[in-house]
Amino acid sequence: MRQYIISIAVSAVVSAIVGIITPDKWRKYVHIVTGLVIVLCIASPVFSLLKSDIFEGFSYNDTVVSKDGEEMLRGELTKELSERIENDISERLKKENGINCSAEVKISVNDEGAIEGVDEIILYGDKMNGAVYSRLKEIYGTDEVIYGGAEKNTPEQE
Description:
Shape: rod-shaped
Radius of gyration: 36 Å
Helix content: 55-70%
Number of helices: 4
């Protein structure tokens, strides 16, 4: 700390002396340069911090973090895909058949975490028939379309 204060004091004294002995037409340029030198002397501890490795000794398990992150992202993607398919089913049945309904979808995921497709569709609403089930099986490539009753709220009721 003592060396730091001495370097600032010396640079200020040298700056003042140089400012006194310079001609008037060069004085403003000399003041800019000497001011920069003083600022650099004051900021030198910051530069020494930047050179040091602040993360020295800090360790983390990269594979655990990446696997947890991948699993979380995969879960979010599966959830988002399920919600989109559920909305698509509701809109499609309303548009094609005039049926107000809601759906619940189960997505199948393999051992590597890749999404394979729609495993099961559960429909909630009225006026369901075999044509609706066949159409959904055809569109989404699933064998399981189940009627879940009328108890789940339709999009208009929410």
